Amino acid sequence: MSSFRMLRSMRISTVVRDRPIHQLDHWTRSSSQSLESSSLRRWLHGSQIQRHGNVTRPDPGTGIKLHFKDSKGNLLKTIEANEGDDILSLAHEHDIDLEGACEGSVACSTCHVVLSPEHYDLLPEPSDDENDMLDMAFGLTDTSRLGCQVQITRELDEMTATLPSATRNMFVDGKKPTHH
């Protein structure tokens, strides 16, 4: 019987569980390891996952204050954040219209914000990937950053994030994105 038919007719775990793993790659730990019959094991890539959108609101009066303004300088909302939260996730949590089309994977410039100069200088330098995306941002300034890449710290208390008047990746029909 061909191996294709065997895979179709049997559960995959019964076909591969007793076979030795011959090739060493990033999915396995060693070339001599075999899969045990009691459980089918897969060794996955161990890179760190960035988690966006997991915002826990601090108790009132205990958080780091962040002010959001529109492109004309009008205050939209003042919120409180925890240390380590990113601006994009905070905007979504508090229903502030900051798009974030790539959901924080540094593949677009739709979460572009303009930061207050005194707070911008407190941030680490943007990565090359972030700079590449910022080059495509509408209304780029000297204090522009991607909201998904700005992690809130205590030193950034009372920071202002101003939303640009437009972005380059908005849906054509004007649909407002929702947080997943």
Provide the descriptors you would attach to this structure in a database record.
alpha+beta, five-stranded mixed sheet, 17% helix
Structure description:
It is a single chain. The chain has helices spanning 3-9, 12-16, 87-93, 117-120, 128-134; strands at 64-69, 75-81, 112-115, 144-146, 159-162. With 180 residues, the protein is α+β, with helices and mostly antiparallel strands. Strands 2-1-5-3-4 form a five-stranded mixed β-sheet. Strand 1 and strand 2 (75-81) form a beta hairpin. The longest helix is centred in the N-terminal third of the chain and has 7 residues, at 3-9. The two termini are 46 Å apart. The model is unreliable at 1-52 (pLDDT under 50).
Structure described in brief:
The protein has 180 residues and is α+β, with helices and mostly antiparallel strands. The protein is built from five helices and five strands, in the order ααββαβααββ.
Strand and helix layout:
Blueprint (H helix, E strand, L loop, with lengths): L2 H7 L2 H5 L47 E6 L5 E7 L5 H7 L18 E4 L1 H4 L7 H7 L9 E3 L12 E4 L18
Parallel strand pairs: 1-5
Antiparallel strand pairs: 1-2, 3-4, 3-5
